[in-house]
Design brief:
Layout lengths: L3 E7 L27 H10 L4 E7 H7 L9 E5 L4 H11 L6 E6 L3 E3 L1 H16 L3 E6 L10 E5 L2 E6 L4 H10 L2 E11 H11 L1 H12 L8 H5 L6 H6 L5 E6 L2 E3 L4 H10 L10 E3 L13 E5 L4 E5 L6 H10 L7
Parallel strand pairs: 1-2, 1-4, 2-3, 6-10, 12-13
Antiparallel strand pairs: 4-9, 5-11, 6-9, 7-8, 7-9, 13-14
Helix pairs in contact: 3-6, 3-7, 6-7
Length: about 325
């Protein structure tokens, strides 16, 4: 009998949320979302829909998740080296029966309005049971440049679009037939593996080899390095003829940058001054003079001050520190 399996992907470091997010504690494990982490919210939310859990991620990420997983039965797949989402999802599919429906979610997204969420996911599960690969598109409410887009007509995908510039994002919003790409997917395990084998035979074969030699869920590093690093979007979603999109109305944010975090915190009543400035991680009075809609982030070893319109550029600071082998990103 087939099962509905939640596959939670726990990778990445959340570089656009530096210095809050670090290699040692990525954004999905920071307990600042109603005093819980995004991972904890993801786990609780999806347990109401699915009957089985597979967690795919690095050893460090899975260790960080362990306190939220106490008392929960799950299968862990430990990646010795990250090889992107196409391989990560393949490992989970290989751990399941071909007819099992995989509901694949990131671990670091904020989702609200669980009733609308459940309606959308059930539609995706229905598409998956019919043999389709379902993705979930979020109705946009602003010309966002930090997200990819899905051009659609009802449940049919016309095209996938990369993160646009401001002008293009405004044009997408005007047309009314573009959705934000949520990075959430639903499909039968066998359908995904067949599509991956068709479009990326080298990736499929290398992933199968690495999975077959896994030791208690831990993948071999040498075999893993032979797997081409490709996203599920590039490997399958943008090439398959069996895609359906579910236009969705639940509140969604990938919480990938400080402008998203700013909006969330302000909505939750986080203090801001008359000019819209906020501070995070500060236990003393902070005054902003001549500034508006700025964010001050304070940690034990770093301070970042930015205008929220520059939130996407925080990644550049992270990358500079990474090139310098700085301990500030660890």
């Amino acid at each position: 009998m087939s099962e509905i399996v939640n596959v939670i992907l726990s990778g990445g470091v959340g570089s656009r949320l530096w210095p809050l997010s670090r290699k040692s504690k990525p954004k999905q494990y920071i307990p600042i979302f109603d005093n819980k982490s995004l991972f904890s919210h993801t786990l609780t939310r999806n347990q109401k829909i699915t009957s089985k859990l597979i967690l795919v991620g690095s050893a460090q990420n899975i260790d960080l998740a362990s306190k939220d997983l106490q008392g929960v039965d799950y299968i862990k797949i430990v990646e010795s080296v990250p090889r992107n989402t196409a391989a990560a999802v393949a490992f989970a599919a290989m751990a399941c029966h071909a007819d099992d429906v995989l509901f694949v979610t990131p671990s670091d997204h904020l989702i609200e309005d669980e009733e609308a969420y459940k309606v959308a996911i059930n539609q995706g599960i229905a598409f998956a049971q019919e043999g389709y690969i379902a993705t979930f598109g979020i109705q946009p409410d602003r010309p966002e440049t930090g997200y990819g887009y899905i051009e659609h007509k009802r449940n049919n995908v016309i095209s996938f679009r990369e993160k646009p510039n401001q002008y293009t994002a405004k044009e997408f919003l005007k047309t009314g037939n573009f959705l934000w790409n949520s990075g959430i997917f639903c499909f039968r395990a066998g359908v995904y593996l067949n599509e991956l084998m068709h479009f990326e035979p080298t990736l499929y074969a290398a992933a199968e080899q690495a999975f077959s030699f896994a030791n208690e869920g831990v993948l071999d590093e040498k075999l893993s390095l032979a797997i081409p690093s490709k996203s599920i979007d590039y490997a399958v979603m943008e090439r398959s003829e069996h895609i359906k999109v579910v236009p969705s109305n639940f509140y969604w944010s990938d919480m990938g940058s400080f402008d998203s975090l700013y909006s969330y915190l302000v909505k939750k009543g986080h203090p801001k001054d008359a000019a819209g400035n906020i501070s995070i991680g500060v236990d003393k009075h902070v005054s902003f003079l001549g500034l508006s809609e700025c964010i001050l982030i304070n940690t034990a070893d770093a301070v970042l001050i930015l205008h929220k319109s520059k939130a996407q550029e925080v990644k550049d600071i992270y990358e500079q520190l990474e090139l310098a082998n700085s301990d500030l990103i660890n």
